[in-house]
Design a protein that fits this description.
alpha/beta, 8-stranded mixed sheet, 7 helices, 27% helix
């Protein structure tokens, strides 16, 4: 279908008048670099065991509480119970073991209005999973990780998967986040911090070019973030490093983090990340009002 001439005039005028809205915020320093925007295809990159899923659970929770954003989640490596347990603990600001049964029931019931979990016992083809996503009342969809899908893991298969997913975003207006790992090269000795560096010997964050599956993911996505943590450092193991590696549309908010200057998110004993001392979930605790 051809686009009618003049159909973009409204956008051009709003852009000229400075009326283009920014993406949704978190109320933290992160907003200078990353915003939630609809109908996007976004990539999350990080090594194994650095807490990618945990940090993103927090990010989803902030968006849900602050803006009412609803998510559909397919997680091939984490159960619904594990994810909800983490979110309930962050939301309540109390260690899960210290919560009463009534507090757990109340909090989980409230949070489940924002999150729909897809059965991970089945090995889905991309088309099958996207069809499920399309039938769910949600604003964003999570594929964690993309290697858990039943599809061809080669150059042609990657582009087919990304093109189909991009079309899904365009048609439905939903945003898709795809969690990925770096290739084996990124974990070799050449990717360690050098002697003389304060983190000498620790594994560096993967470069965007290290993404498993090749640069097709970088080429086709709107935004890409890297999540990293120095898991064996006594001083840094509780700090999660977030870098923005690609922000396609800066007019609606967002920017690239500076080289070797990631944003630092403190683990906060598992009670919801803080950045520069700010806990964006704090104001929403104990305010379980149905949206």
């Amino acid at each position: 279908m051809l686009v009618n001439k003049g159909s973009s005039l409204d956008y051009l005028i709003r852009y000229k008048e400075g009326k283009i809205k920014h993406g949704l915020d978190t109320g933290t320093q992160l907003d200078n670099y990353l915003r939630f925007k609809r109908s996007q295809l976004n990539i999350i990159l990080g090594h194994d065991n650095v807490g990618k899923t945990y940090w993103f659970e927090w990010y989803m929770l902030v968006l849900a509480l602050r803006h009412g954003i609803k998510f559909a989640i397919w997680s091939g490596e984490n159960s619904t119970g594990q994810i909800l347990r983490d979110m309930v603990q962050m939301y309540k600001g109390k260690q899960f073991k210290d919560l009463s049964i009534a507090e757990i029931q109340s909090a989980s019931g409230y949070l489940e209005q924002f999150f729909t979990f897809i059965d991970n016992r089945k090995l889905y083809k991309p088309d099958e999973l996207l069809k499920i996503f399309s039938n769910i009342d949600c604003d964003a969809c999570i594929i964690d990780p993309f290697t858990g899908l039943d599809r061809a893991m080669n150059y042609e298969g990657n582009y087919k998967f990304l093109n189909v997913t991009r079309q899904f975003c365009n048609i439905t207006g939903k945003t898709v986040y795809i969690s990925t790992h770096p290739n084996t090269e990124s974990g070799r000795s050449g990717n360690l911090y050098p002697e003389g560096h304060e983190w000498a010997g620790h594994l560096k964050p993967p470069l965007k070019d290290h993404i498993e599956g090749g640069k097709s993911f970088l080429n086709r996505c709107d935004d890409m973030i890297t999540i990293h943590r120095l898991i064996k450092s006594p001083t840094m193991k509780y700090e999660t490093m977030i870098s923005t590696e690609k922000i396609k549309d800066k007019d609606t908010g967002g920017a690239l983090t500076e080289f070797n200057m990631p944003l630092l998110f403190n683990f906060n004993a598992g009670l919801g990340f803080t950045i520069q001392g700010v806990d964006p979930i704090k104001k929403y605790r104990n305010t379980q009002t149905k949206l």
